[in-house]
Structures are given as structure tokens and as C-alpha cells.
Amino acid sequence: MASTSSEQDKGQSKKRKGEAILNLKVKSQDGEEVSYRANATTKISELKNDYCKRQPFPINYIDFFFDGRQIRDEDTPEQLKMKDGDEIEALIH
């Protein structure tokens, strides 16, 4: 028997509720910090796009780093094993 859309919606809601939400900080070279709340499965590109909207430069001028490694846009906090309160460095080039 096929599930109804309301049953499917309930299943999706449970998955969303079960996802970890992290408080992350993006810190620029000059020490300015921007805080984000993100799901563990959110692509870093979403944070990067928002960060660049707040700053006066294009997205291709910024690289994000975590624990000394450059972050790829398709990476997620979960893949990078980020924890609540972790900091991402934003380097402008």
C-alpha cells in the first residue's frame, strides 16, 4: 500500500527534528565574527553565500578553512566533524 503525502510529511519532519543543529562562527582575518545556526547536513556553500552577502566582496575572493584545511563548498559540518561552537576561518585573497 502506498503511503499518503501526510505520512510522508511526518517521516520527513522526524528526520528534520533529529538533525543536529550547530552554532558555528565565521571569523575574518580582521577578527570580525558572524554567527550561524546550521544543520549538520547543510552545505558550507550556503554559509559562504550568506557571509559574502554581508561583506563587501564577491564569493570568489573568500576561502573558508577549518582546522587548517580548506573547506570545499559541498562539504557539510557533519562531514568535517564540526561540533557546536566551532569556528571557521574566512580568508580573503
Reported for the largest beta sheet, the result is: 5 strands, mixed
Number of beta strands: 5
What is the distance, rounded to the nearest whole angstrom, between the alpha carbons of the first and last residues? 56 Å
Poorly predicted ranges (pLDDT <50, ≥5 residues)? 1-15
How would you describe this structure in keywords?
Ubiquitin-like_dom; alpha+beta; 93 residues; disordered N terminus; globular; five-stranded mixed β-sheet; 5 strands; 27% helix; Small ubiquitin-related modifier; ubl conjugation pathway; Ubiquitin-like_domsf
3D structure, described in words:
The chain is 27% helix and 30% strand. It contains two helices and five strands. The chain has a five-stranded mixed sheet with strand order 2-1-5-3-4, with helices on one face. It is globular, with a radius of gyration of 16 Å. 12% of the residues are buried. The model is unreliable at 1-15 (pLDDT under 50).
Give a quick rundown of the structure.
By secondary structure, the protein is of the alpha+beta class.
Write the layout of secondary structure elements.
Blueprint lengths: L4 H14 L2 E8 L4 E7 L4 H11 L7 E5 L2 E2 L16 E6 L1
Parallel strand pairs: 1-5
Antiparallel strand pairs: 1-2, 3-4, 3-5
Pfam family, one: Rad60-SLD
Protein name: Small ubiquitin-related modifier
Family: Belongs to the ubiquitin family. SUMO subfamily.
